[in-house]
Amino acid sequence: xxxxxxxxxxxxxxxxxxxxxxxxxxxxxxxxxxxxxxxxxxxxxxxxxxxxxxxxxxxxxxxxxxxxxxxxxxxxxxxxxxxxxxxxxxxxxxxxxxxxxxxxxxxxxxxxxxxxxxxxxxxxxxxxxxxxxxxxxxxxxxxxxxxxxxxxxxxxxxxxxxxxxxxxxxxxxxxxxxxxxxxxxxxxxxxxxxxxxxxxxxxxxxxxxxxxxxxxxxxxxxxxxxxxxxxxxxxxxxxxxxxxx
Length: 245
Hints:
By secondary structure, this protein is mainly beta. It contains one helix and eleven strands.
């Protein structure tokens, strides 16, 4: 556990450096925070369950103004192909008061490719979203479609197992039927360490651009995640590292 503590301390120091630099580099846009905790349970080679908790500081790095609680069940119907059904609750705050609540359900498909150590994941997702504006009482709904290409590369081992350093990155686009049809774009690059079969830490930077008729909005997120895995199988495959979501 000392190694875990030392790593987290080092990451926190790195984040502080990023905050200092970001106050100059991102002065026009603002610096944001993105924190995640995930839990993965592999019940069998085909079935898995996933739960994720998130907080974000979108407008001010020191003030949390958004949260997510979500999860679902995945099924690997053939090798390197998974379908997943999920649902979640989301909240947005303005001036320390809840301004919007959302309930979301989604269906996704992930196809995995491997090229030596490098693993690529192609993920498509269809979302149905239900909104409630707390201040006005208005109920609305919308659907959205997402595609993400992500890459994970172990550094000191052939696959991600105990005591493995890794880097990861992705590009994701968000589309919808209502104008503007191109809703959002995300670009992420990060690094992490798999301590054992149960715990990994990931940190990195994500750029997010929101597209709207009234004008675009940019976010520069500093990302930190704790990922817990419970594997009830005897497989020797590499451990899956959850990405920013």
